[in-house]
Design a protein that fits this description.
Radius of gyration: 22 Å
Oligomer: single chain
Length: about 100
């Protein structure tokens, strides 16, 4: 009779650690990229919202997971090509 304990089954079914590592790394990178895109989309929405024009830009960044204004500004500029304050001002001018 074969040993059918959960640990034995798991070891037999598990991929080799060295071959699975690139796949896990790719999944983590995809997750981080997707999470960053979602956070920045929420920031853009809040910056464009007229009801939130008095909320400080740093507070919007902090609300969506950027602990420092400089981190938020850097990530926002890299994604959009403009700073959060320029983005907010352009939204106001467009109205």
């Amino acid at each position: 009779m074969r040993n059918s304990s959960p640990g034995t089954i798991g070891r037999r079914a598990a991929p080799e650690p060295a071959t699975d590592r690139p796949h896990r790394r790719a999944r983590r990178a995809h997750f981080r990229r997707r999470r960053r895109q979602q956070r920045l989309a929420r920031c853009r929405r809040d910056l464009a919202d007229p009801a939130q024009h008095t909320v400080p830009i740093g507070a919007i960044g902090m609300r969506w997971g950027y602990p420092r204004s400089s981190d938020f500004t850097r990530a926002f500029r890299a994604a959009t090509g403009t700073t959060p304050s320029e983005y907010r001002a352009a939204g106001r001018a467009g109205r």
